[in-house]
C-alpha cells in the first residue's frame, strides 16, 4: 500500500500531482543545465582558467550538501507542498543576484547566486524525489522518475540553446578580438558580454515566482511517510539512525559519484568540443546531444521497467555503458570523441531513477531524513567536475575524463550487490 492509497486517494487523483511534479522537474533541468553555458560564458567574461570556471558547478552543487539538512527541517515544518513553493522562491532570490553580478562583472557574486539557486533546488529535490517515488508501487518507481527525467532533460536540452543564443552569440570572434584590444577597450567589451545574462535571468525570476504561487494554491496531497512504519511492521522498530541502513549509505556514495559523472557529461561537453577545435557557435548545441541521449534512455525505462527488466538490472547495463563510452571519449578524437560524451547521457539515464527506490525502500519514518542524505549526495556535482577541471589544467580536457572510470565501477557495484546490504 502506498501513502496516497492510505489517505484515501485514488490512482486517478494522482494525475495532477504527477503533472505538477513534472513541471518542477522541468524547472530543475532548465536551471541546472544552464551551467553548461555559464561555464564557457563566465570563463570568457571573467577571464578564468579551467579550474576557476568549473567552480560554477562547485558553487551550485555544494549547496545540496551544505543545505540538505536544512531542507529536511523545512519539510518537517511546512510539509512537502509548501516546501516546494519555498524552494522555488529561494531559487528566484539566487537568480536575482545575477543582475548585480553581471553589472559589476563580479565572479564571486555569480557564484553566490548559483549557491542560493542550489539551496532552493536542495529543498525542491528533497521534497519531490521521495514524493514521486512514494506516489505509487515501489517496483515501478524508476518508471515514474523516468517520466520526470524526460521533463528534466527536455528542459536541459533547451536551456543551453536558449541561453547560448543570447550570451555566446559571436563568442569565438569576440574572444579573438578581445585578445588584441587595449585594456580599456577589453574591459568595455567584457562588460557588454556580462550584461547579456541580465534579461534571461529576469525571465527565470518571473517563471519561478509564478510557479511557486501555483504550487502554493494547488491541491497536492500531503504524504505522511511516518505512517509507513505501520505498513512495514516491526522491522524499523529498533532503528535509531540512518547509519543502520547500509543500502542507504552506499546509495549516498553512489549518488555522489553518479551526479559527478552526469554533470561532467552535460557541463563539460561544450568546452571540451572547443578544446577539440570545434567553434563555440557549433559546440553550444552539444549539450542537447547529451540531453537527447538521456531522454532516449528514460523512454526505454518507461517502456521496459518493470515489465521486461528490473530497475537494478537497468542500472547495471547503464554502468557498463558508462565505462565503454568514457573509454571511447578518451581514445578517439574530434566529433567522434564528443559523440561519446553525448552518449554518456544514455548511460546515465536510468541510474538516478533506480538509486532513489533502491536506497529509500522500507525506511518508513526515516524517509525524509534519508531523502535529505541522498540530496546531499548531489554534491558530487560540485566535487567531481572540479577534479575534472584541475586534471584538464594539469593534463588536458580529454585525459581528464579518466576521473569517470572509478565512478562507473561503483555504480555497477551498487546495482549488483550494494543495494541489497542490510535488507532482510
UniProtKB/TrEMBL annotation:
**A UniProt-annotated Pfam family:** MFS_1
Write out the transmembrane intervals.
18-39, 51-70, 82-101, 107-124, 145-168, 198-216, 245-265, 285-305, 317-336, 342-363, 370-388, 400-417
Q: What is this protein called?
A: Sugar MFS transporter
Is Transmembrane one of the keywords UniProt gives this record?
yes
Membrane-related topology note: Multi-pass membrane protein
Chief localisation class: membrane
What are the protein's UniProt keywords?
Answer: Cell membrane, Membrane, Transmembrane, Transmembrane helix
Amino acid at each position: 500500500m502506498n501513502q496516497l492509497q492510505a489517505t484515501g486517494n485514488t490512482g486517478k487523483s494522482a494525475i495532477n500531482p504527477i503533472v505538477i511534479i513534472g513541471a518542477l522537474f522541468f524547472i530543475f533541468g532548465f536551471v541546472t543545465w544552464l551551467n553548461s553555458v555559464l561555464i564557457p560564458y563566465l570563463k570568457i567574461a571573467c577571464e578564468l582558467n579551467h579550474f576557476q570556471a568549473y567552480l560554477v558547478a562547485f558553487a551550485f552543487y555544494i549547496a545540496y550538501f551544505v543545505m540538505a539538512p536544512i531542507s529536511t527541517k523545512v519539510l518537517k515544518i511546512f510539509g512537502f507542498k509548501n516546501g516546494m513553493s519555498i524552494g522555488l522562491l529561494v531559487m528566484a532570490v539566487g537568480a536575482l543576484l545575477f543582475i548585480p553580478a553581471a553589472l559589476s562583472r563580479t565572479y564571486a557574486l555569480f557564484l553566490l547566486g548559483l549557491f542560493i539557486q542550489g539551496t532552493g533546488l536542495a529543498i525542491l529535490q528533497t521534497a519531490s524525489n521521495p514524493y514521486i517515488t512514494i506516489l505509487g508501487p515501489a517496483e515501478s518507481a524508476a518508471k515514474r522518475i523516468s517520466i520526470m527525467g524526460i521533463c528534466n532533460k527536455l528542459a536541459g536540452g533547451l536551456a543551453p540553446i536558449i541561453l547560448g543564443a543570447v550570451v555566446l552569440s559571436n563568442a569565438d570572434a569576440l574572444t579573438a578580438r578581445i585578445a588584441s584590444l587595449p585594456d580599456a577597450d577589453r574591459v568595455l567589451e567584457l562588460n557588454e558580454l556580462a550584461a547579456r545574462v541580465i534579461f534571461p535571468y529576469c525571465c527565470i525570476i518571473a517563471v519561478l515566482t509564478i510557479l511557486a504561487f501555483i504550487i502554493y494554491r494547488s491541491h497536492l496531497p500531503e504524504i505522511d511517510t511516518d505512517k509507513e512504519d505501520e505498513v512495514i511492521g516491526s522491522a524499523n522498530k529498533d532503528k535509531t539512525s540512518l547509519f543502520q541502513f547500509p543500502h542507504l549509505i552506499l546509495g549516498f556514495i553512489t549518488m555522489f559519484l553518479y551526479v559527478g559523472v552526469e554533470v561532467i557529461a552535460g557541463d563539460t561537453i561544450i568546452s571540451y568540443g572547443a578544446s577539440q577545435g570545434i567553434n563555440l557557435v557549433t559546440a553550444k548545441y552539444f549539450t542537447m546531444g547529451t540531453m537527447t541521449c538521456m531522454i532516449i534512455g528514460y523512454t526505454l525505462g518507461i517502456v521496459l521497467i518493470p515489465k521486461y527488466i528490473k530497475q537494478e538490472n537497468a542500472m547495471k547495463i547503464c554502468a557498463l555503458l558508462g565505462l565503454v563510452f568514457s573509454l571511447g571519449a578518451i581514445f578517439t578524437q574530434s566529433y567522434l570523441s564528443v559523440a561519446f560524451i553525448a552518449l554518456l547521457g544514455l548511460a546515465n539515464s536510468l541510474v538516478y531513477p533506480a538509486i532513489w527506490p533502491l536506497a529509500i525502500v522500507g525506511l518508513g519514518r526515516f524517509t525524509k531524513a534519508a531523502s535529505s542524505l541522498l540530496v546531499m549526495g548531489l554534491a558530487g556535482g560540485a566535487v567531481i567536475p572540479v577534479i575534472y577541471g584541475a586534471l584538464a589544467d594539469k593534463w588536458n580536457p580529454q585525459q581528464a575524463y579518466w576521473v569517470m572510470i572509478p565512478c562507473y565501477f561503483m555504480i555497477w557495484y551498487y546495482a549488483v550487490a550494494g543495494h541489497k546490504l542490510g535488507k532482510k
